Protein backbone atom coordinates (compact mmCIF):
# COMPACT_ATOMS: atom_id res chain seq x y z
CA UNK A 1 0.00 0.00 0.00
CA UNK A 2 1.38 3.36 -0.98
CA UNK A 3 1.00 5.97 1.71
CA UNK A 4 0.92 9.62 0.74
CA UNK A 5 2.53 11.80 3.39
CA UNK A 6 2.51 14.95 1.27
CA UNK A 7 1.74 17.96 3.41
CA UNK A 8 0.65 21.31 2.01
CA UNK A 9 0.71 24.61 3.82
CA UNK A 10 -0.30 27.65 1.80
CA UNK A 11 1.77 27.53 -1.39
CA UNK A 12 4.38 25.15 0.05
CA UNK A 13 4.42 21.42 -0.53
CA UNK A 14 6.37 19.18 1.82
CA UNK A 15 7.05 15.56 0.86
CA UNK A 16 6.23 14.53 4.40
CA UNK A 17 5.39 16.28 7.70
CA UNK A 18 8.76 15.68 9.38
CA UNK A 19 10.88 18.77 10.01
CA UNK A 20 13.63 19.59 12.48
CA UNK A 21 13.14 22.09 15.30
CA UNK A 22 15.27 25.21 15.26
CA UNK A 23 18.53 24.98 17.18
CA UNK A 24 18.74 21.20 17.20
CA UNK A 25 20.06 20.44 13.74
CA UNK A 26 22.74 23.07 13.18
CA UNK A 27 22.81 25.64 10.41
CA UNK A 28 24.25 23.55 7.61
CA UNK A 29 25.04 19.84 7.21
CA UNK A 30 25.89 18.83 10.77
CA UNK A 31 23.78 15.65 10.57
CA UNK A 32 24.78 14.61 7.04
CA UNK A 33 26.52 11.47 8.36
CA UNK A 34 23.18 10.11 9.51
CA UNK A 35 20.37 11.87 7.68
CA UNK A 36 19.74 12.33 3.96
CA UNK A 37 18.35 15.86 4.07
CA UNK A 38 16.34 15.12 0.93
CA UNK A 39 14.22 12.70 2.93
CA UNK A 40 13.01 15.34 5.38
CA UNK A 41 9.80 17.28 4.91
CA UNK A 42 11.40 20.58 5.85
CA UNK A 43 14.60 21.94 7.33
CA UNK A 44 14.33 24.65 9.97
CA UNK A 45 17.66 26.29 10.78
CA UNK A 46 19.08 27.35 14.08
CA UNK A 47 18.16 30.98 14.80
CA UNK A 48 19.99 33.47 12.61
CA UNK A 49 20.43 37.03 13.88
CA UNK A 50 21.43 40.15 11.97
CA UNK A 51 24.83 40.34 13.64
CA UNK A 52 26.85 37.45 15.00
CA UNK A 53 26.22 36.51 18.62
CA UNK A 54 28.81 34.98 20.95
CA UNK A 55 26.15 33.25 23.02
CA UNK A 56 25.89 32.84 26.78
CA UNK A 57 28.67 31.88 29.22
CA UNK A 58 29.42 28.23 29.97
CA UNK A 59 28.04 25.93 31.25
CA UNK A 60 25.08 26.29 28.92
CA UNK A 61 23.31 22.95 29.16
CA UNK A 62 22.32 20.42 31.78
CA UNK A 63 20.44 17.18 31.81
CA UNK A 64 17.23 16.83 33.82
CA UNK A 65 14.67 14.05 34.17
CA UNK A 66 13.02 13.59 30.79
CA UNK A 67 14.87 16.39 29.10
CA UNK A 68 17.42 19.12 29.30
CA UNK A 69 17.88 22.79 30.05
CA UNK A 70 19.74 24.99 27.62
CA UNK A 71 20.81 28.61 27.63
CA UNK A 72 22.91 28.79 24.47
CA UNK A 73 21.97 32.42 23.92
CA UNK A 74 21.42 32.20 20.15
CA UNK A 75 25.11 31.83 19.31
CA UNK A 76 25.45 32.16 15.54
CA UNK A 77 27.67 33.85 12.99
CA UNK A 78 25.04 36.27 11.77
CA UNK A 79 23.08 36.83 8.58
CA UNK A 80 26.01 37.66 6.29
CA UNK A 81 27.80 34.42 7.11
CA UNK A 82 24.57 32.49 6.62
CA UNK A 83 23.97 34.00 3.20
CA UNK A 84 27.57 33.53 2.06
CA UNK A 85 28.49 30.19 3.60
CA UNK A 86 25.28 28.27 4.28
CA UNK A 87 22.83 29.25 1.52
CA UNK A 88 25.04 27.83 -1.30
CA UNK A 89 24.96 24.47 0.47
CA UNK A 90 21.15 24.44 0.55
CA UNK A 91 20.91 25.33 -3.15
CA UNK A 92 21.69 21.66 -3.81
CA UNK A 93 18.95 20.36 -1.51
CA UNK A 94 15.36 20.26 -2.70
CA UNK A 95 13.82 20.05 0.79
CA UNK A 96 12.14 23.36 1.66
CA UNK A 97 14.38 25.49 3.88
CA UNK A 98 12.74 27.54 6.62
CA UNK A 99 15.10 30.02 8.23
CA UNK A 100 14.50 30.81 11.87
CA UNK A 101 15.30 34.42 12.71
CA UNK A 102 15.41 36.62 15.80
CA UNK A 103 15.88 40.34 16.14
CA UNK A 104 16.51 42.62 19.08
CA UNK A 105 14.25 45.18 17.48
CA UNK A 106 11.44 45.25 14.94
CA UNK A 107 13.85 46.83 12.46
CA UNK A 108 16.22 43.88 12.82
CA UNK A 109 13.40 41.45 12.04
CA UNK A 110 12.51 43.63 9.05
CA UNK A 111 16.10 43.72 7.78
CA UNK A 112 16.57 39.95 8.21
CA UNK A 113 13.37 39.30 6.28
CA UNK A 114 14.27 41.74 3.52
CA UNK A 115 17.63 40.04 2.91
CA UNK A 116 16.25 36.50 3.12
CA UNK A 117 13.45 37.48 0.75
CA UNK A 118 16.10 38.10 -1.89
CA UNK A 119 17.17 34.44 -1.62
CA UNK A 120 13.79 32.94 -2.38
CA UNK A 121 15.31 30.35 -4.69
CA UNK A 122 16.54 28.62 -1.54
CA UNK A 123 14.67 30.10 1.41
CA UNK A 124 11.04 29.00 1.31
CA UNK A 125 9.87 30.32 4.64
CA UNK A 126 10.70 32.23 7.75
CA UNK A 127 10.12 31.21 11.33
CA UNK A 128 10.11 34.07 13.82
CA UNK A 129 11.73 33.22 17.12
CA UNK A 130 9.60 35.39 19.39
CA UNK A 131 10.12 33.29 22.47
CA UNK A 132 13.76 32.52 23.27
CA UNK A 133 13.89 32.30 27.08
CA UNK A 134 17.63 32.98 27.27
CA UNK A 135 18.24 36.41 25.80
CA UNK A 136 17.36 39.89 26.94
CA UNK A 137 16.25 41.96 23.97
CA UNK A 138 14.00 40.12 21.55
CA UNK A 139 13.54 37.17 23.88
CA UNK A 140 10.42 35.84 25.55
CA UNK A 141 10.37 38.34 28.40
CA UNK A 142 10.83 41.24 25.99
CA UNK A 143 8.09 39.97 23.68
CA UNK A 144 5.64 39.79 26.55
CA UNK A 145 4.62 43.23 25.42
CA UNK A 146 1.95 42.02 23.04
CA UNK A 147 1.88 45.05 20.77
CA UNK A 148 5.50 44.24 19.97
CA UNK A 149 4.69 40.79 18.58
CA UNK A 150 2.06 42.33 16.33
CA UNK A 151 4.50 45.04 15.25
CA UNK A 152 7.20 42.47 14.37
CA UNK A 153 4.85 40.29 12.34
CA UNK A 154 3.43 43.27 10.46
CA UNK A 155 6.96 44.47 9.68
CA UNK A 156 8.02 41.04 8.45
CA UNK A 157 4.81 40.71 6.42
CA UNK A 158 5.44 44.03 4.71
CA UNK A 159 8.80 42.70 3.45
CA UNK A 160 7.83 39.29 2.14
CA UNK A 161 5.09 37.14 0.70
CA UNK A 162 7.01 34.05 1.80
CA UNK A 163 5.61 31.59 4.32
CA UNK A 164 5.92 33.10 7.82
CA UNK A 165 5.44 31.17 11.05
CA UNK A 166 5.52 32.72 14.53
CA UNK A 167 7.18 30.58 17.20
CA UNK A 168 5.47 31.00 20.54
CA UNK A 169 5.81 29.71 24.06
CA UNK A 170 3.68 29.87 27.21
CA UNK A 171 6.44 32.15 28.56
CA UNK A 172 4.80 34.93 26.52
CA UNK A 173 1.47 34.73 28.30
CA UNK A 174 -1.82 33.32 27.01
CA UNK A 175 -0.76 31.44 23.88
CA UNK A 176 -4.28 31.17 22.50
CA UNK A 177 -4.85 34.94 22.68
CA UNK A 178 -1.38 35.76 21.33
CA UNK A 179 -1.93 33.30 18.49
CA UNK A 180 -4.98 35.35 17.49
CA UNK A 181 -2.82 38.49 17.35
CA UNK A 182 -0.22 36.69 15.23
CA UNK A 183 -2.82 35.48 12.74
CA UNK A 184 -4.49 38.87 12.39
CA UNK A 185 -1.07 40.52 12.00
CA UNK A 186 -0.39 38.28 9.02
CA UNK A 187 1.37 35.12 10.23
CA UNK A 188 0.71 32.14 7.95
CA UNK A 189 1.36 29.58 10.66
CA UNK A 190 2.32 29.11 14.29
CA UNK A 191 5.23 27.11 15.65
CA UNK A 192 4.25 25.59 18.98
CA UNK A 193 6.00 25.44 21.37
CA UNK A 194 9.40 26.89 22.20
CA UNK A 195 11.13 25.77 25.41
CA UNK A 196 9.75 26.53 28.87
CA UNK A 197 12.00 28.34 31.31
CA UNK A 198 13.38 26.06 34.02
CA UNK A 199 16.03 25.78 36.73
CA UNK A 200 18.34 23.07 38.07
CA UNK A 201 20.44 23.36 41.23
CA UNK A 202 23.80 21.79 42.00
CA UNK A 203 23.12 20.84 45.63
CA UNK A 204 26.79 20.29 46.53
CA UNK A 205 27.80 23.78 45.50
CA UNK A 206 24.34 25.31 46.00
CA UNK A 207 24.64 26.95 42.63
CA UNK A 208 22.68 26.90 39.38
CA UNK A 209 23.79 24.15 37.02
CA UNK A 210 23.94 26.52 34.07
CA UNK A 211 25.66 29.92 34.09
CA UNK A 212 22.54 31.76 32.89
CA UNK A 213 20.79 30.41 36.06
CA UNK A 214 17.62 29.54 34.11
CA UNK A 215 17.39 27.81 30.76
CA UNK A 216 14.85 26.52 28.30
CA UNK A 217 13.41 23.12 29.17
CA UNK A 218 13.00 20.76 26.23
CA UNK A 219 12.48 17.05 25.74
CA UNK A 220 9.73 14.58 26.69
CA UNK A 221 9.11 16.50 29.95
CA UNK A 222 7.31 19.23 27.97
CA UNK A 223 5.46 17.06 25.48
CA UNK A 224 2.05 17.09 27.19
CA UNK A 225 2.22 20.88 27.46
CA UNK A 226 3.11 21.24 23.77
CA UNK A 227 0.37 18.82 22.77
CA UNK A 228 -2.20 20.73 24.80
CA UNK A 229 -1.29 24.01 23.05
CA UNK A 230 -1.39 22.48 19.57
CA UNK A 231 -4.79 21.02 20.42
CA UNK A 232 -6.16 24.32 21.79
CA UNK A 233 -4.86 26.37 18.88
CA UNK A 234 -6.23 23.92 16.34
CA UNK A 235 -9.58 24.02 18.13
CA UNK A 236 -9.62 27.82 18.18
CA UNK A 237 -8.28 28.78 14.76
CA UNK A 238 -7.92 27.46 11.24
CA UNK A 239 -4.18 27.96 11.20
CA UNK A 240 -1.36 25.64 10.16
CA UNK A 241 0.83 24.55 13.08
CA UNK A 242 4.44 23.43 13.19
CA UNK A 243 4.46 21.32 16.33
CA UNK A 244 7.47 20.81 18.59
CA UNK A 245 8.08 19.85 22.19
CA UNK A 246 9.54 16.54 23.27
CA UNK A 247 8.77 14.58 20.12
CA UNK A 248 11.08 11.56 20.43
CA UNK A 249 9.23 8.74 18.67
CA UNK A 250 6.68 8.07 15.94
CA UNK A 251 4.04 7.60 18.66
CA UNK A 252 4.77 11.11 19.93
CA UNK A 253 4.55 12.52 16.40
CA UNK A 254 1.27 10.69 15.80
CA UNK A 255 -0.28 12.29 18.88
CA UNK A 256 0.49 15.72 17.43
CA UNK A 257 -0.78 14.75 13.96
CA UNK A 258 -4.03 13.40 15.42
CA UNK A 259 -4.73 16.71 17.18
CA UNK A 260 -4.07 18.46 13.89
CA UNK A 261 -0.39 19.43 13.62
CA UNK A 262 0.68 20.19 10.06
CA UNK A 263 4.44 19.79 10.44
CA UNK A 264 6.24 17.86 13.15
CA UNK A 265 9.48 19.49 14.25
CA UNK A 266 11.80 16.96 15.85
CA UNK A 267 14.14 18.76 18.22
CA UNK A 268 15.99 17.53 21.27
CA UNK A 269 15.49 13.94 20.05
CA UNK A 270 18.20 14.59 17.44
CA UNK A 271 20.72 14.90 20.27
CA UNK A 272 19.88 11.42 21.56
CA UNK A 273 19.27 9.69 18.26
CA UNK A 274 20.85 11.32 15.22
CA UNK A 275 18.44 9.39 13.01
CA UNK A 276 15.36 10.35 15.06
CA UNK A 277 13.72 12.16 12.12
CA UNK A 278 14.00 9.19 9.78
CA UNK A 279 12.99 6.69 12.48
CA UNK A 280 9.88 8.78 13.20
CA UNK A 281 9.07 9.01 9.50
CA UNK A 282 9.29 5.25 9.14
CA UNK A 283 7.15 4.76 12.24
CA UNK A 284 4.44 7.05 10.86
CA UNK A 285 4.41 5.15 7.57
CA UNK A 286 4.14 1.83 9.44
CA UNK A 287 1.24 3.17 11.53
CA UNK A 288 -0.60 4.39 8.44
CA UNK A 289 -0.14 0.99 6.81
CA UNK A 290 -1.44 -0.78 9.91
CA UNK A 291 -4.48 1.52 10.06
CA UNK A 292 -5.02 1.54 6.28
CA UNK A 293 -4.55 5.30 6.11
CA UNK A 294 -3.77 6.22 2.50
CA UNK A 295 -3.16 9.91 2.96
CA UNK A 296 -1.74 11.65 5.99
CA UNK A 297 -4.62 14.13 5.77
CA UNK A 298 -7.01 11.29 6.66
CA UNK A 299 -5.20 11.05 9.99
CA UNK A 300 -4.41 14.71 10.58
CA UNK A 301 -6.88 16.32 12.96
CA UNK A 302 -8.89 13.10 13.34
CA UNK A 303 -8.88 13.47 17.13
CA UNK A 304 -12.08 12.23 18.78
CA UNK A 305 -12.83 14.52 21.73
CA UNK A 306 -15.36 12.21 23.32
CA UNK A 307 -14.33 9.51 25.75
CA UNK A 308 -16.10 6.18 25.86
CA UNK A 309 -17.12 5.92 29.45
CA UNK A 310 -18.00 2.35 30.29
CA UNK A 311 -19.67 1.75 33.61
CA UNK A 312 -18.68 3.35 36.90
CA UNK A 313 -15.15 4.76 36.97
CA UNK A 314 -12.62 2.85 39.03
CA UNK A 315 -12.16 4.37 42.46
CA UNK A 316 -15.08 6.71 41.85
CA UNK B 1 41.12 19.77 5.70
CA UNK B 2 39.16 22.61 7.17
CA UNK B 3 36.38 22.13 9.68
CA UNK B 4 33.17 22.71 7.72
CA UNK B 5 31.33 24.86 10.15
CA UNK B 6 33.78 26.45 12.56
CA UNK B 7 36.95 26.97 10.54
CA UNK B 8 39.56 25.24 12.73
CA UNK B 9 41.95 23.05 10.79
CA UNK B 10 40.68 19.53 11.10
CA UNK B 11 42.44 16.21 10.76
CA UNK B 12 39.44 13.98 10.41
CA UNK B 13 36.77 13.45 7.86
CA UNK B 14 35.92 9.93 8.99
CA UNK B 15 32.39 8.64 8.68
CA UNK B 16 30.33 8.38 11.80
CA UNK B 17 28.23 5.35 12.65
CA UNK B 18 25.47 4.60 15.12
CA UNK B 19 25.57 0.93 16.05
CA UNK B 20 23.82 -1.38 18.48
CA UNK B 21 26.52 -3.46 20.14
CA UNK B 22 26.52 -6.40 22.54
CA UNK B 23 28.51 -6.15 25.76
CA UNK B 24 31.28 -8.79 26.01
CA UNK B 25 32.76 -7.61 29.31
CA UNK B 26 31.88 -4.94 31.85
CA UNK B 27 34.03 -5.42 34.92
CA UNK B 28 35.76 -3.42 37.60
CA UNK B 29 39.53 -3.54 37.12
CA UNK B 30 40.73 -1.46 40.10
CA UNK B 31 39.43 1.04 42.67
CA UNK B 32 38.82 3.58 39.91
CA UNK B 33 37.95 1.98 36.59
CA UNK B 34 35.46 -0.31 34.94
CA UNK B 35 36.35 -1.87 31.61
CA UNK B 36 33.62 -2.28 28.98
CA UNK B 37 34.32 -4.43 25.92
CA UNK B 38 32.28 -4.97 22.75
CA UNK B 39 32.80 -5.60 19.06
CA UNK B 40 31.96 -3.31 16.15
CA UNK B 41 33.84 -3.25 12.87
CA UNK B 42 32.39 0.12 11.91
CA UNK B 43 33.08 1.91 15.18
CA UNK B 44 36.64 0.50 15.14
CA UNK B 45 37.69 0.96 11.54
CA UNK B 46 38.99 4.52 11.28
CA UNK B 47 39.33 5.48 14.93
CA UNK B 48 42.33 7.44 16.17
CA UNK B 49 43.46 8.08 19.77
CA UNK B 50 41.66 11.06 21.27
CA UNK B 51 38.42 10.39 19.43
CA UNK B 52 35.34 9.46 21.40
CA UNK B 53 31.96 7.80 21.13
CA UNK B 54 28.48 8.68 22.42
CA UNK B 55 26.97 5.81 24.37
CA UNK B 56 23.23 5.46 24.89
CA UNK B 57 23.11 3.56 28.16
CA UNK B 58 19.52 2.34 27.71
CA UNK B 59 16.37 3.02 25.74
CA UNK B 60 14.47 4.39 28.75
CA UNK B 61 15.62 8.01 28.38
CA UNK B 62 17.14 7.78 31.86
CA UNK B 63 19.79 9.05 31.65
CA UNK B 64 18.36 11.35 28.99
CA UNK B 65 21.59 12.15 27.12
CA UNK B 66 24.14 9.79 25.76
CA UNK B 67 27.46 9.73 27.58
CA UNK B 68 30.74 10.50 25.82
CA UNK B 69 33.64 8.07 26.37
CA UNK B 70 37.13 8.02 24.89
CA UNK B 71 38.28 5.00 22.98
CA UNK B 72 40.69 3.11 25.25
CA UNK B 73 41.87 0.22 23.15
CA UNK B 74 40.93 -1.01 19.68
CA UNK B 75 42.15 -4.36 18.38
CA UNK B 76 40.64 -5.17 15.00
CA UNK B 77 36.89 -4.92 15.71
CA UNK B 78 37.23 -5.29 19.49
CA UNK B 79 36.73 -2.00 21.33
CA UNK B 80 37.47 -1.29 24.98
CA UNK B 81 36.27 1.63 27.10
CA UNK B 82 37.66 2.46 30.53
CA UNK B 83 35.31 4.49 32.70
CA UNK B 84 34.79 5.70 36.23
CA UNK B 85 31.47 5.91 38.04
CA UNK B 86 31.04 9.68 38.17
CA UNK B 87 27.27 10.01 38.31
CA UNK B 88 23.90 8.50 37.57
CA UNK B 89 24.66 7.50 33.98
CA UNK B 90 27.94 5.72 34.64
CA UNK B 91 26.41 4.04 37.71
CA UNK B 92 23.69 2.57 35.45
CA UNK B 93 26.32 1.59 32.87
CA UNK B 94 28.29 -0.29 35.54
CA UNK B 95 25.18 -2.37 36.26
CA UNK B 96 24.94 -3.74 32.70
CA UNK B 97 25.92 -7.36 32.12
CA UNK B 98 27.56 -9.35 29.36
CA UNK B 99 25.03 -9.92 26.56
CA UNK B 100 23.13 -6.67 27.12
CA UNK B 101 23.02 -4.05 24.38
CA UNK B 102 24.19 -0.48 23.97
CA UNK B 103 23.69 2.00 21.17
CA UNK B 104 26.96 3.67 20.32
CA UNK B 105 27.77 6.50 17.92
CA UNK B 106 31.31 7.15 16.76
CA UNK B 107 34.08 7.78 16.07
CA UNK B 108 33.60 11.45 16.97
CA UNK B 109 35.86 14.46 17.31
CA UNK B 110 39.39 15.38 16.36
CA UNK B 111 42.14 13.05 17.62
CA UNK B 112 45.51 13.86 19.13
CA UNK B 113 48.34 14.59 16.69
CA UNK B 114 49.61 11.13 15.90
CA UNK B 115 53.08 12.13 14.79
CA UNK B 116 55.21 14.70 16.58
CA UNK B 117 58.33 14.88 14.39
CA UNK B 118 61.63 15.48 16.16
CA UNK B 119 59.92 15.91 19.51
CA UNK B 120 59.83 13.83 22.66
CA UNK B 121 56.22 12.99 23.36
CA UNK B 122 55.15 13.53 26.97
CA UNK B 123 51.67 12.22 27.80
CA UNK B 124 50.09 13.56 30.98
CA UNK B 125 46.98 11.84 32.25
CA UNK B 126 44.61 11.75 35.17
CA UNK B 127 41.21 10.17 35.82
CA UNK B 128 39.09 9.78 32.69
CA UNK B 129 42.07 11.16 30.75
CA UNK B 130 44.14 8.01 31.19
CA UNK B 131 42.34 5.80 28.60
CA UNK B 132 42.87 7.95 25.47
CA UNK B 133 46.52 8.53 26.31
CA UNK B 134 47.16 4.84 26.93
CA UNK B 135 45.57 4.24 23.50
CA UNK B 136 47.93 6.83 22.00
CA UNK B 137 51.00 5.43 23.78
CA UNK B 138 50.20 1.90 22.64
CA UNK B 139 49.90 2.88 19.00
CA UNK B 140 52.45 5.65 18.54
CA UNK B 141 56.00 6.07 19.85
CA UNK B 142 55.98 8.09 23.05
CA UNK B 143 58.69 8.96 25.54
CA UNK B 144 56.88 9.53 28.79
CA UNK B 145 53.48 8.66 30.19
CA UNK B 146 52.81 10.55 33.41
CA UNK B 147 49.78 9.49 35.41
CA UNK B 148 48.35 11.22 38.44
CA UNK B 149 46.00 9.46 40.88
CA UNK B 150 44.81 9.84 44.46
CA UNK B 151 46.61 6.79 45.82
CA UNK B 152 48.06 3.36 44.99
CA UNK B 153 44.52 1.92 44.80
CA UNK B 154 43.81 3.80 41.56
CA UNK B 155 47.05 2.76 39.85
CA UNK B 156 46.39 0.90 36.58
CA UNK B 157 46.88 -2.88 36.71
CA UNK B 158 50.31 -3.69 35.23
CA UNK B 159 48.94 -5.81 32.37
CA UNK B 160 46.85 -2.88 31.11
CA UNK B 161 50.05 -0.96 30.41
CA UNK B 162 52.21 -3.87 29.21
CA UNK B 163 52.26 -2.80 25.56
CA UNK B 164 53.55 0.67 26.28
CA UNK B 165 57.20 1.38 25.54
CA UNK B 166 57.21 4.90 27.00
CA UNK B 167 58.60 5.48 30.48
CA UNK B 168 55.59 5.35 32.83
CA UNK B 169 55.77 7.55 35.91
CA UNK B 170 53.14 7.87 38.63
CA UNK B 171 52.38 10.64 41.06
CA UNK B 172 49.91 10.02 43.88
CA UNK B 173 48.37 12.68 46.10
CA UNK B 174 49.23 10.71 49.24
CA UNK B 175 52.62 9.47 48.06
CA UNK B 176 51.58 5.82 48.35
CA UNK B 177 52.87 5.08 44.84
CA UNK B 178 55.49 6.92 42.76
CA UNK B 179 56.12 10.58 43.45
CA UNK B 180 54.09 12.42 46.08
CA UNK B 181 51.89 15.24 44.86
CA UNK B 182 50.27 16.21 41.58
CA UNK B 183 51.32 14.92 38.20
CA UNK B 184 52.91 18.31 37.48
CA UNK B 185 55.72 17.35 39.90
CA UNK B 186 56.76 14.75 37.33
CA UNK B 187 56.50 17.20 34.46
CA UNK B 188 58.72 19.70 36.23
CA UNK B 189 61.31 16.97 36.79
CA UNK B 190 61.30 16.03 33.08
CA UNK B 191 61.66 19.65 32.06
CA UNK B 192 64.83 19.82 34.18
CA UNK B 193 66.23 16.65 32.59
CA UNK B 194 65.32 17.40 28.97
CA UNK B 195 65.48 20.45 26.75
CA UNK B 196 61.99 22.01 26.96
CA UNK B 197 62.05 22.85 23.26
CA UNK B 198 62.40 19.13 22.47
CA UNK B 199 59.20 18.23 24.27
CA UNK B 200 55.61 17.94 23.01
CA UNK B 201 52.91 17.50 25.64
CA UNK B 202 49.55 15.75 25.14
CA UNK B 203 47.27 15.88 28.14
CA UNK B 204 43.83 14.71 29.20
CA UNK B 205 42.28 14.65 32.64
CA UNK B 206 40.61 16.82 35.26
CA UNK B 207 40.45 20.49 34.32
CA UNK B 208 42.63 21.77 37.21
CA UNK B 209 45.32 19.27 36.18
CA UNK B 210 45.24 20.35 32.54
CA UNK B 211 45.25 24.03 33.49
CA UNK B 212 48.35 23.44 35.65
CA UNK B 213 50.03 21.53 32.80
CA UNK B 214 49.24 24.25 30.24
CA UNK B 215 50.55 26.91 32.62
CA UNK B 216 53.90 25.13 32.96
CA UNK B 217 54.03 24.43 29.21
CA UNK B 218 53.50 28.12 28.43
CA UNK B 219 56.17 29.12 30.93
CA UNK B 220 58.73 26.88 29.22
CA UNK B 221 57.35 27.45 25.71
CA UNK B 222 56.50 23.81 25.23
CA UNK B 223 53.97 23.02 22.53
CA UNK B 224 51.18 20.59 23.14
CA UNK B 225 47.57 19.56 23.04
CA UNK B 226 44.82 19.15 25.62
CA UNK B 227 41.65 17.09 25.31
CA UNK B 228 38.90 19.11 26.94
CA UNK B 229 35.96 17.36 28.49
CA UNK B 230 32.91 19.62 28.44
CA UNK B 231 29.36 18.47 29.15
CA UNK B 232 27.95 17.31 25.83
CA UNK B 233 24.48 16.69 24.53
CA UNK B 234 24.60 15.93 20.80
CA UNK B 235 28.25 15.21 19.97
CA UNK B 236 27.49 16.49 16.45
CA UNK B 237 28.27 20.19 16.72
CA UNK B 238 24.58 21.06 16.69
CA UNK B 239 23.54 21.98 20.23
CA UNK B 240 26.46 24.32 20.99
CA UNK B 241 26.48 23.22 24.62
CA UNK B 242 30.11 22.02 24.88
CA UNK B 243 31.85 25.21 23.84
CA UNK B 244 35.54 25.95 24.33
CA UNK B 245 36.99 29.44 24.01
CA UNK B 246 39.68 29.71 21.34
CA UNK B 247 41.97 32.56 20.38
CA UNK B 248 41.04 32.90 16.73
CA UNK B 249 37.56 31.42 16.46
CA UNK B 250 35.83 32.41 19.70
CA UNK B 251 33.60 29.80 21.31
CA UNK B 252 33.60 26.58 19.30
CA UNK B 253 32.10 23.16 20.04
CA UNK B 254 34.53 20.73 21.64
CA UNK B 255 32.65 17.72 20.24
CA UNK B 256 33.48 18.46 16.60
CA UNK B 257 36.24 21.09 16.66
CA UNK B 258 37.85 19.22 19.60
CA UNK B 259 37.96 17.55 22.01
CA UNK B 260 41.69 17.88 21.32
CA UNK B 261 42.92 21.46 21.05
CA UNK B 262 46.41 22.82 20.54
CA UNK B 263 47.66 24.82 23.57
CA UNK B 264 48.19 27.71 21.16
CA UNK B 265 44.51 27.70 20.13
CA UNK B 266 43.27 27.93 23.70
CA UNK B 267 42.70 31.16 25.54
Characterize the structure shown.
The complex is a heterodimer of chains A (316) and B (267). In chain A, 30% of the residues lie in helices and 19% in strands. By secondary structure, chain A is α/β, with parallel strands linked by helices. Chain A has an eight-stranded parallel beta sheet. In chain A, helix 2 links the parallel strand 7 (97-101) and strand 8. The longest helix of chain A has 15 residues, at 276-290. The model of chain A has no long low-confidence stretch (mean pLDDT 95). With 267 residues, chain B is of the alpha/beta class. Chain B is built from five helices and 16 strands. Chain B is globular.
Name given to the CATH homologous superfamily of the largest domain in chain B: Nucleotide-binding domain of ferredoxin-NADP reductase (FNR) module
| The CATH topology of the largest domain in chain B | Rossmann fold
Number of helices of chain A: 9
Write the CATH homologous superfamily of chain A: Aldolase class I
CATH topology of chain A: TIM Barrel
Distance between termini of chain B?
A: 23 Å
Number of strands of chain B: 16
Q: How does the helix and strand content of chain A classify structurally? A: alpha/beta
Q: Can you tell me the overall shape of chain B? A: globular
Element pattern of chain B in H and E: EEHEEEEHEEHEEEHEHEEEE
CATH class of the largest domain in chain B: Alpha Beta
Report on the biggest sheet of chain A: 8 strands, parallel
Quick structural summary:
The complex is a heterodimer of chains A (316) and B (267). Chain A contains nine helices and 16 strands.
